[in-house]
Specification:
Blueprint lengths: L1 H39 L19 H20 L5 H19 L21 H18 L2 H9 L4 H28 L12 H48 L2 H6 L14
Length: about 270
């Protein structure tokens, strides 16, 4: 029975880590892959990632990649179970907004996309995209919450581990905040950079910041689990040696020592 339980715990941990890595890889790579598919189809870089829904008549590969990207991340984040209830809620909400961006395409503007056909409830596209960006920022700010911090505090040199977590959050927040500020302040500069795809690169700063956060967080969790298993696996050996060295008479009157603390892997 213990073997089965250990196997299940190991499988759950691997599943969580795989989901995080897949989310990070998709956030970093899929926007660029979608843009590349449009360029290879003979179209210049679009003003925003959402424009790839209409860039080719009947959608084509760019629309397929755009919708697949949004739906994939929506499924991953909605299915993901966070390190605590609040972490879970943040990512589930972000997953719903990813679905919203895929389900409700941007408004069909014939002057920009002559062959476009209006999609489902296009007025919901911008709110979905905005709330998606903000929920990603909240996810990075939360950074696993008290549960992750509590686990890191059990390690030797806990302040170093907590500083690493702050650095992970800090870099991603800088990228994502830069995207927000650029969105708010870029309009006066549009005339100086004609044809520059402002919104696309602003969006990519958000996706990249979120993706880098996932990948670096997984590196931290892997290192913390390795350190924790090393630290706490030596405790039973120490307890056994101390017990074996005690006099037999003492062993009869002394209460058994408490069970050594174990490390539980951060999933």
């Amino acid at each position: 029975m213990e073997t089965n339980r250990s196997f299940a715990e190991l499988s759950i941990g691997k599943t969580y880590r795989r989901l995080r890595y897949l989310a990070g890889a998709a956030l970093l790579g899929m926007p660029l892959l979608t843009a590349l598919s449009g360029i290879l189809s003979g179209h210049s870089l679009q003003p925003s990632l959402s424009d790839y829904y209409f860039v080719i008549k009947d959608g084509g590969l760019p629309r397929t990649l755009f919708v697949m990207f949004m739906a994939f991340l929506g499924g991953v984040l909605y299915s993901y179970r966070g390190l605590d209830d609040r972490d879970n809620l943040i990512h589930n909400v972000a997953g719903l907004f990813f679905f919203g961006v895929a389900l409700f395409p941007m408004p069909c503007i014939l002057s920009e996309h002559p062959d476009c056909q209006p999609g489902l409830l296009p007025f919901l596209h911008l709110p979905s995209a905005t709330l998606l960006y903000l929920s990603a920022v909240v996810s990075v700010l939360y950074g696993g919450g008290p549960t992750l911090k509590k686990a890191l505090m059990r390690l030797s040199g806990s302040e170093t581990w907590l500083r690493k977590l702050r650095n992970i959050k800090g870099l991603s927040l800088i990228l994502m905040t830069t995207g927000i500020l650029t969105f708010l302040l870029h309009k006066p500069f549009k005339d100086y950079f004609p044809g520059f795809s402002w919104i696309f690169w602003i969006e990519y700063l958000g996706f990249a910041g979120f993706g880098i956060y996932w990948v670096r967080l997984m590196w931290l969790i892997n290192a913390a689990n390795k350190e924790g298993n090393h630290m706490y696996s030596t405790q039973p050996e120490i307890s056994q040696r101390e017990g074996a060295g005690a006099p037999s008479a003492s062993r009869e009157i002394v209460k058994p020592a408490a069970q050594p603390e174990q490390w539980s892997d951060i999933p």
